[in-house]
Amino acid sequence: MKIRRWLALALLLTACSSSGKPASAQEYPTPTEQTPSPTPSEIRLPEASGNVILGDSLIQIDASHTDQGYIMVKTLSTDHRRLKLKIMKDGEEYPYDIDRDGEYITYPLTQGSGQYELRGYENIEGTRYAVLFKQTLDVQLAEETLPYLYPNQIVNYTPQSASVLKSFDLTQTCRTELERVLTIYNYVVGHVSYDWDKVEKVKDQYVLPIVDETLAEGKGICFDYAALMSAMLRVQQIPTRLITGYVDEGYHAWVEVYVRGAGWINPEIYFEKETWTRMDPTYASTQMKYKGEYHDKYRY
C-alpha cells in the first residue's frame, strides 16, 4: 500500500460541534465509569476439549467451544502436501493455511451465529487443490463479541507473550476502558514505525503478523500494527477485531474496538456506547490523513 504523509483521522463524528471537535470534552479520554483492571488470569485462551470432533483422517477439527467463537484444527499426520481450511457462511468465505503439524491452531468464527460450512483441502500441484471433506457446523455464539477476545492464527499470543506483558505494564494505572484504549493506541502509534522495506518484500505474498516480533523490532506494516494493537487490547478484555480490506490506495489493515462506555479518546476519535469504532494506528503512526472510504473484506 502506498501511503501519503498526512495526520491520522479516525471516524464517527457524532456528538461533535460544527467544527468537528467534541462540543464539551475538556480532557482526554472523556471521564467514564471506572472498571476493575483486568488481570493476566482473566485472559481468554482457546481450549480443545475433544467433545465435538470433525474433519477426517488427516485434519482434525475440535468444535467443542463454538459458542465462544472459535474452532481448533490440527493435522494427524506429517505425510501431506500443503493444506488449507475454508470457513464459509452466508456466501462469505474465509480461507486459511494449516501451517503447522501436530498442534492445534485456532481459527475464529467471525460471521456470527448460524450454520457454517467447513472444508479441508490438500494441494495436488501448483494452485490446484483436492477437497478432503465438507462438513456443516451449527454455531450459537454466547455473545457477539467473543471471537474478538481470544487469540487466533492471525492475532496470536499467549499469557507469556512480550506484547501481553507490555499491555499490562502500560495499563496498570488506567481506571477506565477508554483510558486503556487510549494508552495502548498511543503506545503502538508511537513505538512502531512503518517498515517500507517489508511492504516491498511481502507485496506478492501473504505473511502472518508476529506480534512479539513487531514489538521487539518496533516496525511493521499495517497488518502488524493491527495485530499488535488487537492482542494488547484483547487481554484487557476489550473486544478488538482486526479488519483487512481496501482503502483508496489499495490493500490495508486496521482495527475496530468495542467499549461499554462512550466518549472521546482524543479530539478526533469518538466511541459510541457498545458500538464498533474504527481505529487506524498505521495512518496515525505515519502522520497521514485518510479521508476516503474503508471497505472491509475479512474480520479476525
TrEMBL record:
<feature type="compositionally biased region" description="Low complexity">
    <location>
        <begin position="29"/>
        <end position="41"/>
    </location>
</feature>
<feature type="region of interest" description="Disordered">
    <location>
        <begin position="19"/>
        <end position="41"/>
    </location>
</feature>
<dbReference type="InterPro" id="IPR002931">
    <property type="entry name" value="Transglutaminase-like"/>
</dbReference>
<feature type="domain" description="Transglutaminase-like">
    <location>
        <begin position="214"/>
        <end position="271"/>
    </location>
</feature>
<feature type="signal peptide">
    <location>
        <begin position="1"/>
        <end position="25"/>
    </location>
</feature>
<protein>
    <submittedName>
        <fullName>Transglutaminase domain-containing protein</fullName>
    </submittedName>
</protein>
<keyword id="KW-0732">Signal</keyword>
<dbReference type="Pfam" id="PF01841">
    <property type="entry name" value="Transglut_core"/>
</dbReference>
<dbReference type="InterPro" id="IPR038765">
    <property type="entry name" value="Papain-like_cys_pep_sf"/>
</dbReference>
